[in-house]
């Protein structure tokens, strides 16, 4: 099971266009804000074991994951797409996390999914603005509702 979960909301994105929601990119200002904030935010992260970087397949989440990868010193080619993050499939996502053995997962996605996961796992209703990062610990070793602890929440 995952030991440390880091939830990341994508940065400021373009409006929906004719290409559809999946194709929406980050705005130039959105990228710049993340590139400024993420080195500082992720410097405080103390990964447990191997670090895996997951992303929603939406272009805005993938670009956010690339900026996070750079801040974390992870090869962007190692970003793993997870449909559950785009589909906001909480049970599917938790099932995927249960297959991770003793490591840190950084997952980039959307709201309300990110906010809902913090509330489901930690019992805390927190704001989750664009670019926000939340670190969650599992001291009981269980992914069950209310069994995790919110370590920190940082806005980009």
UniProtKB/TrEMBL annotation:
What's the source species' lineage? Bacteria, Bacillati, Actinomycetota, Coriobacteriia, Coriobacteriales
Instruction: Tell me which Gene3D superfamilies the record gives.
Output: Phosphoglycerate mutase-like
What's the protein name?
Answer: Phosphohistidine phosphatase SixA
User: Which InterPro entries does UniProt cross-reference here?
Assistant: His_Pase_superF_clade-1, His_PPase_superfam
Q: At the top level of its lineage, which domain of life is listed?
A: Bacteria
